[in-house]
Write a structure and sequence with these properties.
The protein has 143 residues and is an alpha+beta fold. Helix content is 15%, strand content 43%. It has one domain: Immunoglobulin-like (Sandwich). The protein contains one helix and ten strands.
Length: 143
Amino acid sequence: MKHILLPLLTLGLALLTACSSLIAPSRPLEITLESTGMHYQPSTFEVTAGEPVKLTLRNSDSVDHDFSIMEIPLMSMGATGEPMAGHEMGEMAVDPQLHMAAAMNASNSFEFTPTKAGTYEFFCTVPGHKEAGMVGTMIVRAP
């Protein structure tokens, strides 16, 4: 009986360890975008479908900026700041699905989980900013 008990306990412990890593929620990938001079830095970044992302928009400019994606499949989204922060997007016919504003010389963050691989354009909705070059690309890789 002793010879069977030790291997069974070892196997049980190994299974518990393996399962706990599957159950544990993954920490969000943290990305910081700097907006200054009508540009985002970095202008391109990559994330993985199904994995949470915490995006921070740090606005070092003397005017308001935002981060917007018109359409993107999402599992969840949650703001850690004020996503709109009293921000006006101009006269858009349709609101962006993913949107967060940062007032001048301020930062704002939100978390989201993209669900579909693809390339998504992000831009600033403040009138004239997209046309001045405030655009970038988020690449969502398959898991």
